[in-house]
Amino acid sequence: MIALNKSAKAHSKLMKDLALNDLINETIHVQIKYFDTDKSTVLHENKFSGRVIKTDPNEGISIQPDEDKNAVAVIPPSIEAHWRDENNTIHIDWVVYRLQEVRADGEHEWWDWQPAPKSH
């Protein structure tokens, strides 16, 4: 399950009239930053553009990246991380925090997905 904090709702003001299905066939720009448990060390950053091919309120938003038409990236089914720039281009920015140290026993690691703070 993907957990979002209450501050995520503040970002929905920018896209309040946008529904998940409105994203289908839209080209979007995605940025996801993964942070360690200290919430400051960046573990990985993923940036890509692509076309939304499917949305599902339970399964997420499926995106076909421009650089690999055979791949599908799936992100949380939430509009809180979405915004449009002055050219009406849709952007999706997430920060993802690791909630526990690396597990040596092979158990699942927990991650907290939150809309990235807006700086535009």
Give your account of this protein's structure.
Strands 1, 2, 3, 4, 5, 6 and 7 form a 7-stranded mixed beta sheet that branches. This protein has one domain. It is globular, with a radius of gyration of 15 Å. Helices cover 0% and strands 42% of the residues. The chain has no helices and 7 strands.
What's the number of domains?
1
Beta-strand percentage?
35-45%
The total of beta strands comes to 7
| Total number of helices | 0
Helical amount: under 10%
Q: State the distance separating the first and last CA atoms.
A: 29 Å
Task: Encode the helix/strand succession as letters.
Answer: EEEEEEE
Gyration radius over CA: 15 Å
> What's the shape?
globular
Q: Describe the main β-sheet briefly.
A: 7 strands, mixed
Stretches where pLDDT is under 50 for at least 5 consecutive residues are 1-16
What structural category characterises the helix and strand content?
mainly beta
Mean pLDDT: 82
Topology of helices and strands:
Blueprint: E1 27-35, E2 42-56, E3 60-65, E4 73-75, E5 82-84, E6 90-98, E7 111-115
Parallel strand pairs: 1-6
Antiparallel strand pairs: 1-2, 2-3, 3-4, 5-6, 6-7
